[in-house]
Amino acid sequence: MTEVESAVGELFGVSCARWKDCAAVESDTNGQPVVVNETAGAWGPAMALAAPGGGGQFNGVSCPTASSCTAVGQDDHGQPVYAPYG
């Protein structure tokens, strides 16, 4: 994943392992899937994942623990995209 300067768009999913430890997913202005993490109440930079199909978006995220999340969505060709991270 690479940091993106601005992740203008809509949030499509949010998951919180506990209070003030959350993750949110969206698509950035370049059409790449993006994740943003909150740790101890502070949101970090937006991080983009280069989708195999050239672009796409994350539609959901699940974080069973604060250090383990999986974002899911689809690329521009409708193929599944997922990214375990943490």
Description:
- The protein is an all-beta fold.
- The chain has one domain.
- 0% of the residues lie in helices and 60% in strands.
- It has no helices and 9 strands.
- Strands 1, 2, 3, 4, 5 and 6 form a 6-stranded antiparallel sheet that branches. It has a 3-stranded antiparallel sheet with strand order 7-8-9, with no helix packed on it.
- Strand 3 and strand 4 form a beta hairpin.
- It is globular.
- The chain starts with a strand and ends with a strand.
H and E string: EEEEEEEEE
Q: What is the SS-derived class?
A: mainly beta
Beta content: over 45%
Note the overall shape.
globular
Tally of strands? 9
Please write out the topology:
Layout: E1 2-3, E2 11-18, E3 21-27, E4 33-39, E5 42-43, E6 47-48, E7 56-65, E8 68-75, E9 80-85
Antiparallel strand pairs: 1-6, 2-3, 3-4, 4-5, 4-6, 7-8, 8-9
Quick structural gist:
The protein is mainly beta and 86 residues long.
What keywords describe this structure?
86 residues, mainly beta, six-stranded antiparallel β-sheet, three-stranded antiparallel β-sheet
